[in-house]
Design goal:
single chain, alpha+beta, 20% strand, Abortive phage infection protein
Length: 64
C-alpha cells in the first residue's frame, strides 16, 4: 500500500465519506505505518476480524 492511498482512505474516514474500511492482513503493516503518524491517530479504531483482516472506523472521541 502506498502512502497516498492510505492517507486518502484515512481522510475519507475522518471526513465521514466512508463509514468503515477493511484492510487485509497482507496490507495491515503497510497501512498501520501511515496511520500511526497521524495527529488524529487515537480517533481510529481497528476491529480485528477472523482471518486477520481489520475494519477501521473513525471515532468522534479519541480512545484512551
Amino acid at each position: 500500500m502506498q502512502e497516498l492511498d492510505a492517507n486518502e482512505i484515512l481522510d475519507k474516514l475522518a471526513n465521514r465519506e466512508l463509514e468503515e474500511y477493511r484492510i487485509s492482513k497482507e496490507e495491515f503493516l503497510a497501512f498501520r505505518q501511515f496511520l500511526v503518524r497521524r495527529a488524529d491517530f487515537k480517533h481510529y479504531r481497528g476491529i480485528a476480524q477472523h482471518g486477520g483482516d481489520v475494519i477501521y472506523r473513525y471515532l468522534d472521541e479519541p480512545r484512551s
